[in-house]
Write a structure and sequence with these properties.
The protein is an alpha/beta fold. It is built from 13 helices and seven strands. The protein is 47% helix and 13% strand. The radius of gyration is 18 Å and the shape is globular.
């Protein structure tokens, strides 16, 4: 187990701008409305040039970019609906095996860690354009006793045991099914869990419909929505209120890592993601392509 970390803000890298452009391209070309996509890239390049510096919250600048994207593409389309439906159905077929994988652990600590591992290995969506429904080979291998678990950084079991109120920030459809297994473990440990999903639809990201598909509207104590990447703020919204009441943040994926790392007001945070780029590899100390369960103890 790697050592735990204190929470520091993710410093923007020039490659973060390139990655954002790749993410935009992957979503724009799949469903543009015959508008001027080159102009979209000019607008986003201008945004990056004017707004990105060493203090920039990458989640916030991503949200600004999404506002520009909406002028040219819609975040919901038959392409995304089909991708999400197929992915959700596939993951649902895997959940009985996932439940058995967790229950077969010998101690409560090992059971919780296995649930974290499955949730982390669900984070497979590419930065660029997905070609079809997501598959989860690392999760399947792990459930079958093959492959290696994600890198575990810090004692997540002790942190969970000493927590009472969790804000669980989801990422994509499909992987939210693996999240349901972890949230069931948290609820069995008597933690209050507030789930954050997107509303309205936001490309491949998990929405209320996806949460209901997996029964999370019953498993979690409460489900709240964010219209883009959640960046903590002072507005009196349900998600900000849930953030203020929480004492532990569980965050899925790269976008949420960018938005929340070092921005949790001293609360402990557990980040579950695949290391998909060089800046995150540098920040975590984990090689690209690896999955990680990272505990930040707060400041």
């Amino acid at each position: 187990m790697a050592p735990l970390e204190k929470g520091g803000i993710v410093k923007p890298d020039i490659k973060c701008g390139l990655c954002l452009l790749e993410w935009v391209y992957g979503r724009a070309v799949s469903q543009n409305r015959n508008k001027d996509i080159p102009q979209l890239f000019k607008n986003i390049t201008k945004l990056l040039a004017h707004n990105m510096d060493s203090s920039t919250n990458l989640g916030a600048i991503c949200n600004d970019a999404v506002d520009l994207i909406y002028e040219y593409v819609t975040p919901r389309s038959p392409f995304w609906d089909k991708l999400k439906q197929k992915t959700n159905e596939y993951v649902k077929s895997l959940l009985p095996k996932g439940e058995e994988f967790i229950k077969s652990a010998k101690t409560p600590k090992a059971m919780l860690e296995r649930a974290f591992y499955l949730a982390a290995t669900g984070n497979v969506a590419p930065m660029g354009a997905p070609s079809g429904a997501f598959t989860f080979p690392e999760a399947v291998d792990m459930m079958e006793g093959k492959g290696s678990p994600p890198v575990l950084m810090g004692n997540v079991y002790e942190t969970v045991v000493n927590s009472k109120n969790v804000l669980y920030v989801t990422d994509n459809a499909g992987e939210i099914g693996f999240d349901s297994l972890l949230i069931s473990q948290l609820r069995a440990m008597n933690l209050w869990v507030t789930l954050v999903v997107k509303d309205p639809a936001y490309f491949e990201d998990a929405t209320m419909d996806d949460a209901v598909f997996y029964g999370l509207d019953s498993i979690a104590n409460k489900v709240v929505t964010a219209n883009k990447v959640f960046v903590p703020g002072n507005e009196k919204t349900p998600v900000n209120e849930a953030f203020r009441k929480s004492d532990l943040i569980i965050s899925k994926g790269t976008g949420n890592y960018d938005a929340l790392r070092g921005e949790t007001d001293g609360k402990a945070a557990i980040f579950l993601l695949k290391v998909k780029c060089e800046p995150i590899a540098k920040d975590t100390g984990i090689n690209e392509g690896k999955f990680v369960v990272r505990l930040d103890t707060g400041i």
